[in-house]
Design brief:
about 250 residues; alpha/beta; seven-stranded parallel β-sheet; globular; oxidoreductase; NAD(P)-dependent dehydrogenase (Short-subunit alcohol dehydrogenase family)
Length: about 250
């Protein structure tokens, strides 16, 4: 019997990269997974099909984030296919631009905050009435907020700093309902988001691997397994935590 049998999970950005890894792992543990995505219908169908082929349950949920009414659209679509929620994983995020402070534009700044900070705030706000007591919220942060600063990612990093504050504050607010709230902070992960510089540049790949005592770069499954623990009953006494998921790169 899976640890999450009978549970319903929602993973934002759940059709690709880390999100897909999380969706598939939660489904393997028995959860029925709402695989949220923004635009890529094919990726969402592929992820749902992979879950179902492996014996799990899932459905796709389309809602573009970072636009007016995004949270309302997401939850309206969710309510058509599910009745109540047990696990919310705020994973969706973008890197709008790679620029130091001198060249970040107001448009890029607003866009990355709209998707990475504002959207999860209001998705969570509207989700609380659907999240059952004893539920789980897992937010995806980054090591860039704690000792791994990269000037060219200042805007992205600031959005994840907001996620860290959201995590700590909600943990205190939702504790009386038995709801735990934690953040998982990956370092470099081999996903499509990093493919342009990681997979095509051997020197960059080697440098990223050397940052970890394990001398390798994380895969999506490495992060998904941590999220699975925080989504399970075994994590019942863990809340308000920022979990370093960099493979020891900050040591």
């Amino acid at each position: 019997m899976g640890a999450l049998n009978g549970k319903t999970a929602l993973v934002t950005g759940g059709s690709r990269g880390i999100g897909r890894g999380i969706s598939e792992r939660l489904a393997r543990d028995g959860a029925r997974v709402a695989v949220h995505y923004g635009r890529n219908d094919a990726a969402a169908r592929e992820t749902v099909a992979a879950i179902e082929t492996a014996g799990g349950q899932a459905f796709a949920l389309r809602a573009e984030l970072g636009v007016p009414g995004d949270a309302e659209t997401l939850w309206a679509a969710f309510d058509e296919q599910a009745d109540g929620l047990d696990i919310l994983v705020n994973n969706a995020g973008i890197v709008e631009s790679k620029d130091p402070i001198a060249t970040v534009t107001p448009e890029a700044f607003d866009r990355v905050f709209a998707v990475n900070a504002k959207a999860p705030f209001f998705v969570t706000q509207l989700g609380l009435s659907r999240l059952r007591d004893g539920g789980k919220i897992v937010n995806i942060s980054t090591t860039l907020t704690r000792g791994a600063a990269i000037p060219d990612l200042i805007g992205y990093s600031m959005t994840k700093g907001a996620i860290d504050v959201l995590t700590m504050t909600l943990a205190k607010e939702l504790g009386p309902r038995g709801i735990s709230v934690n953040a998982v902070a990956p370092g470099v992960v081999d996903t499509d988001m990093n493919a342009d510089w990681l997979r095509n540049e051997p020197e960059a790949l080697a440098a990223a691997a050397e940052a970890s005592p394990f001398n390798r770069v994380a895969k999506a499954d490495d992060i998904a397994d941590i999220v699975a623990f925080l989504s399970s009953p075994d994590s019942r006494w863990v809340t308000g935590q920022w979990i370093d998921a960099s493979g020891g790169a900050l040591v």
